[in-house]
Please model this.
Amino acid sequence: MPLLACERMAGDSYPRPFAGVDEAGRGCLAGPVVAAAVILPERFDLPGLADSKKLTEKRRSVLEPLVKSQALAWGIGVAWPGEIDSINILRASLTAMCRAVGVLRIPPVFLAVDGNQPVPLDTPQQTVVGGDGKIPAISAASILAKTFRDRLMIKLDVRYPGYGFAVHKGYGTKVHLEAIRRLGPCRMHRMTFRGVLPGETSKEEALCLPGI
Model:
């Protein structure tokens, strides 16, 4: 659903330049969690901008270059499966967000973070549950994180064939779970997630807080 006019005003009171921050791939069984940070100008032309999960792959591919060309700054941060297993998915997601903010060529004075967990930075910030559908800068970040991660999973499908990464992007689909049972997990799998190792229960369920 497109952002409503009243929702667009939700970030108008933030000091500028502020960055919207979001992640993609938190619930996957394989691949990294990817975060993006985006600083939009006060005026922009991004028709149909919305939460990346509400957009088709085609629409995301159209919006991605528009976001990059109009943004004052944008950055990507990644946390790989080994790190996810080591520090848990919550901390890995927040770490990826910190990395995305850290590579912005314009230091933001404020962060608008999707979800209910603040990132461990000294920068003033506000968490916004459902922010990817309310704050344009967060919506833009969600699109960059999703499109970057999808392309990465397509490349990983070539390196680790047989799992179908290019199709399901690492999510726990029936096809993916069957491939894990048949081939065993590869280096891109999150060993602490349920469904990856036989008989293992997820150590992450209590850490997957809503909206992060």
User: Anything to note?
Assistant: Confidence is low (pLDDT under 50) at residues 1-8, 201-212.
